[in-house]
Structure formats: C-alpha cells, structure tokens
Amino acid sequence: MILRWLARSGDRAEHERLLDDARGPWAGAPPSGPPDPLAGLLRAAAAPPRPRELAGEEAALAAFRAARQAAAGAPAARPLRRRFTAGVVLWLAGLAATATAGAALAAANLDRTEAPPPPPPASATVAPVPTGVPATPTADRPGGRTPTPTGAPSGAAPAPTSASPVPIEAEPRATAHLGRGNSGRCKAYLSKPERQREKALRTPGFDELVTAAGGAEHVPAYCRQLLAETDPNWLARQEPEPDASTNGTES
Amino acid sequence: MTGELSQAVEAAQAGDEDAFRLLYRGLQPGLLRYLTVLVGADAEDVASETWLQVARDLPHFTGGEFRAWVVTIGRNRAMDHLRRQRRRPAVSVPVQELAELAGDADTAERAGESLGTEAALAMIANLPPREAEAVLLRAVVGLDAATAGRILGRRAGAVRTAAHRGLRRLALLLDQRAEAATSSGRRAPGPRTGLSPKAPRTESVDG
Q: What is the rounded CA–CA span in Å between residue A201 and residue A216?
C-alpha cells in the first residue's frame, strides 16, 4: 500500500518535472537507459516556434497601432468621467456635511461640483477618431461641437494639416472617420488565407469593418481601397498573390 | 523571465510597438498550439481575434500574470468560437487542411526519430479536454499549476492531477504506438493506429 503510494507520488513528481522542463533547454537524455518518449513528446509539443506560427505578427501589430490611435482619439473622455465621479463623491460628502455641519460648507462643496466639468466636446472625441491630433479642431472653437472633427470642411484646416499629410481628409466622411481603425482590421482580414476570410467576417471583431464596408461582400474592395490610401506599401507587399480564388482546393 | 515580461508589458502599454512585438513572439506559439487543440484548424483565426482583443484591452490590463491574461482571452474566444460553430453545424471542416496537418506530422516523424510538434499536439488533443488543457498550459504555455488553475477555474491541485492523468495516458499511447510500429512495420499509410478520434476537434488534428 505504502509502496504503491510512494511509487505513485514519485510518478507525479516525475511528471511535474517533465511538465516544467518541456520548454527549458535540452538537458539531454536521462543518464541511463533509452530517452524517455514522454519527455520527447512534451518537448516536441513545446518546441521552439516555427516561422509559420508567427505569420500573424504584422496583423497583430496593425491591431496594436489601430488600438493606440483609437485610444489617442478619446483621451478627453476618461479624465472627464473620473472628474465627474470625483464630483459626485464631493457632492455626497457635501450632503453629509450639510446634515451635520452648517450650510456654508455645503455651499462651498456644491460650488465645486458644478464647476469641474467644463463640458468640452466629449461627443466628438469619444468616437474612434483616428487622426493624430483629433482634439485640436474642436478644442480651438469652444462652441463648435461638430460631430465630424476631421472632415469638417470649413476653415478648420490649418491645425490638422501639420500632423496628417495622409490624404485621409480628402476622403468621404465615413472612410475618414473609421479609416485608421479599420485599416488595422483590413490588414488582419487580408492577411488571412482566402478560405478563412469569409468566416472571419462573421466574428464580432470584424463587425465594424463589415458595417463600414456596407456588407461582407464589399469588404475586400473596401479594404483594398482603404489600404491603397493609408498604407499602399503594405498592400503592395500583400497583393502579389492575387486573390487566387481557388478557394483552397490545393496547396 | 517575469521581470522581462512585465517590463515589456509596461512598455507596450506605453505604446512601444517593439515591446508588443516581443510579447507577441513570446506568447503566440504557445497560444496557437493551445488553441489548435481546442478548436482545431480554426486556431489561427481565434488567435488573431485574441490578439485583436489584447491590443484593444492592453491599457486596461492592471498587472498580474500577463500570459495568463492573454491565454484567458484566447480561451474565451475559443469557447465563443465553438459555441458559434455548434449553432451553425453546417460549417464544414476544411478537410484538406487537416490532411496537410497530418501529412506534416507524418513527414516530421519520418524525417527524424523524434516526434514532430504537430504529431505531439495531435496526441495531446486525443486526451480528455481537461487533461489536454492542463498538459498544454503547463508544458507548452509554461504556466505553473496555480496560474493554469486560475485560467481553467480550478484549483492548482486539480490541475496537477489532470496533467498527471494526461501524461499517464500519453505514456500509454506512446507504448501502443511503439508496439504498433514494430508489429506492423511501416507499410500502412496511417501508422498512428493507437489514436482513436473521440470528438470532432480531435479528429480535426488527427486527420
């Protein structure tokens, strides 16, 4: 009984060691006897990466860039919300104070709560605005709460031009608005093997792209057009293998 | 290891693209192999969905084990994927892709004495899911039992037990394989007779 338990726990310890060592440097076969096939299996499963496994690297980086740009577009929203909650807390504190202390203190607190959110154009910036310096055009004009910050035709041109020589501004509004975010998605989409693309479009991650393109069937054309403007080099690298519509009948 | 990793995570959170690339290269292979066992041929799709979400949610990552965070996202995406697939049973499994996979495995086996990565993963995929996941998270992703347990929603001890059982089963399969190989020679096209497919996803890897 005890022997069996010992054997078993030894087994377990050995297994733990194998699991830990699978990714480590090759320690060589055990000193005596043939190489352990189980260790070999685990090492094979945890073998160093093959290039094929990293094929999605550029797409992942594109997603990273797109996310950064989207986040950079909406920096005003978060601090504002935080300030708002801080205000609420202050206000509640104020209420509590009113109950106990005099009204003067409460008044001071109330004053403060009303002051903080100088409501800048949150609505304009919350959207995934892609361009580099999104806040400027609207921030310049406190009254102007135009929902389309970049494409705004009027005299708002001077500020943005310095940062974005990209011809996005000339685009129709929809493209300009979603362009950068979607160019990452487009890259992710176009870097997929042909036969996986259609399926990919049914995943929630691509919803926005499909909407922007106006339907799944328009996505390839939309993406090519978009990337031709935002990142022609990438597109050129990707395109040499034209959409061989073999649908993967061979490989 | 963890120091480097958390440095890279911080840099990536600050917007450093190279740091993100480093994270990708470090995690993707293990993640992809894990997902391959979970969802078969769609693993690459699920992995790219995972990275999409990682990129998006990176600012909200508040510390802890980064690999576990990424793998958790991947696992959730995989479960979503399987759920979607179940709802849409008409989706065909791209057969020739599986054939490729199996072919790769075979050539890898013939080329060297040792098992190829694909063949090894195919064998692990034949384990009951709990055991397969425990083995993969421990050996391939490189997490300890406690961290793997957090991902799987189980205690560290349960993960250890599952991994242990999985390894025992694998050892058995390896024995059977060796026997089959010696008894039947190498003329049969599919020498991996010891592996009986149990579920569609294991079929998908095994061919």
A: 7
For A34-51, b/e burial (b = at least 16 CB within 10 A) is eebbbbbbbbbbbbeeee
Count how many domains chain A has: 2
Q: Please judge whether B48 and A250 are an interchain contact, meaning their C-beta atoms are less than 8 angstroms apart.
A: no
Whether chain B has a CB inside 8 Å of the CB on A63: the answer is: yes
Residue A71 touches partner B, C-beta closer than 8 Å: yes
- Give yes or no: residues A111 and A173 share one domain: no
CA distance B131 to B128: 6
Under 8 Å between Cβ of A182 and A208: yes
**pLDDT above 90 for A24:** no
Residue A242 main-chain phi, psi, to 5 deg: -65, 160
Question: CB distance from A52 to chain B under 8 Å?
Answer: no
CATH 1.10.10.10 for the B95-206 domain, yes or no: yes
Residues 6+ apart with CB under 8 A from A109: A90, A91, A93, A94, A97
Each residue's pLDDT tens digit, A90-145: 566 655 555 555 555 545 555 454 444 444 444 444 444 444 444 444 444 444 44
Nearest residue on chain A to B35, judged by CA atoms? A53
Pick the residue of A9, A14, A23, A42 with the most B CBs within 10 A to test the interface with B by mutation: A42
**Is the ipTM above a cut-off of 0.85?**
no
pTM (two decimals): 0.54
CATH number belonging to domain B2-87: 1.10.1740.10
Residue A95 lies in a domain: yes
State which residue of chain B sits closest to A18, comparing Cα positions. B139
Indicate the SS3 state at residue A126: helix
Say yes or no: do domains B2-87 and B95-206 share a fold.
Answer: no
Q: Testing the interface with B: which of A12, A15, A54 to mutate, by most B Cβ within 10 A?
A: A15
Show Cβ contacts of residue B83 under 8 Å, excluding neighbours closer than 6 positions.
Answer: none
Residue A13 in contact with partner chain B when CB distance is under 8 A: no
Cβ of residue A46 closer than 8 Å to a chain B Cβ = yes
A138 and A206, same domain (yes or no):
yes
**CA separation for the pair A105, A125 (Å, rounded):** 36
Range of the domain at A92: 77-119
Query: B117 in contact with A at a CB cutoff of 8 Å?
Result: yes
